[in-house]
Amino acid sequence: MSGPAPLPTGPLASLTARLLLAFLLPALGFFGLMGSGGYALAHSILEEELGQSLSAIAAATASQVSGERMLTIEPGDDVQGTRTWRNLSRLLGEVQRASGVRRVYAVDTQGRVRVDIGGGLPVGAEVPELARDRRELGRVLAGERTASQVLFTGSDGQLYKTGYAPIRQADQVVGVVAVEGSAAFFGLLVRLSQAFAVASAVALAVLAAVAVLTAQGLARPLRRLMDSALRIGRGDLTTPVPPEPTREIGVLARELEVMREALESRDRQLKLMLAGVAHEVRNPIGGIELFSGLLAEDVRAGSLSEAGGHVTRIQREVAYLQRIVEDFLAFAREQPLARAPVEAPTLLSDACELLAGEAEAKGVALEVDAVPTRLEADGSLLTAALVNLVKNAIQASPSGGRVQVTGRPADAVYAIQVRDSGPGVPPPETERIFEPFFTTREKGTGLGLPLARKIIRAHGGELSLSSAPGNTVFTVTLPLERSSRQEP
């Protein structure tokens, strides 16, 4: 016989670990998706907004620049401080101060500086940053305003973006105004994302605490149930299963307690039966041993007349021993019911006919009075139960007495009563009369009445006793067949 199955082990075996995973994995996914997705979306929106703002400032500035005059600015004009250079420098400087941008400069179509405010490049120098935005410059020279597609890091370590707009002379693009603006707000976005990460960590910690507390709240009663189940599995059937306040776990605890009580009752009954069998078997075996010894002595002495009597006694003890074994097997065996429609009068008459000879030998009259009713029952088993009741009544009746067997429908049951006029059952014995192996007769096995009750309960009925001197009644109540209940 194999032992109990080993308990699961490993990192996910405990309820706490599983609840932590159940709580934290979705939360991690949610916060991670919200954090990274929200940051990327906010970054994209803010970057696009910055590019549109810078390109709008560049377009407003370019609309105030005369392309014809800008083209007259030559290298060295910034050193000499020519009027045209000063005027354009003043315009771009005012734009820089008013908008708060880092740098504003104007270049011709070849990318050479005409005026650079904030960058410090001389007139005629090429702007290195323009090589990075060739595609954007191509669109500007085609007459559109736009902004650089990527952020770049300045010498101060900050992120910047450039907006571009065309400078026109008549309908021809002759230059470009570039406005560099700081993306300092991305620092705020980073701090916001850090704050979100901290808040997410706090939320995960709270969820972890809730998961642990929930797991402990569930694990404690489940652990108590597990301990109770292990105790029952080890054979401790006397310790009750403690009730639990939680509804679902409470149902498990109640059902486990019902199972424990049933096992305890079955175990107690089995021990009682084994003790009863040992006690009952000891008597006939002792008799067989005694009479076989006497038989051996008579055979050696040649006294065959006495030997015949000993053989008869041995056969009687063997028959009694056989009856004990049969009654024990009948009581211990779980017999499935073969239900079929049975007429109640026939059932009662058959049981009485089997005992007619015994009743006549004792001088006891058997009377049967049954109202016709159809029962759904196992006829052979129910007959055996009634035979035990009628036989018990015959044995209890005095010579010249009578045993009445009646059957009447009442409400939703059919009541069968077996009444005798014997001395009755004393009150102390009334409670024990249905216990296995309890008997007041010298040669009784004490299994007839317990077997009868077992069979009747298997049919969904009940067997009860009321006893007084001269009037002892066993009452059997059996559920009526559905069609019989509907009869008037």
Question: In brief, what are we looking at here?
Answer:
The chain crosses the membrane at residues 20-42, 196-219. With 488 residues, the chain is an alpha+beta fold.
Structural summary, described in words:
The strands form 3 sheets. Strands 1, 2, 3, 4, 5 and 6 form a 6-stranded antiparallel sheet that branches. The chain has a 5-stranded mixed sheet with strand order 8-10-11-13-12. Helix content is 55%, strand content 17%. The protein folds into 3 domains: 18-187, Beta-Lactamase (2-Layer Sandwich); 255-332, Orthogonal Bundle (Helix Hairpins), CATH 1.10.287; 340-485, Heat Shock Protein 90 (2-Layer Sandwich), CATH 3.30.565. Mean pLDDT is 81; it is low at 1-5 and 7-12. β10 (402-410) and β11 form a beta hairpin. The radius of gyration is 53 Å and the shape is rod-shaped. It contains 14 helices and 13 strands. The chain has helices spanning 15-62, 67-71, 77-80, 83-99, 134-141, 185-233, 247-301, 304-332, 344-354, 356-362, 379-396, 427-430, 448-458, 482-485, and strands at residues 103-108, 113-117, 146-147, 152-153, 159-169, 172-182, 340-343, 365-370, 374-377, 402-410, 413-420, 462-468, 471-479. The chain is of the alpha+beta class and 488 residues long.
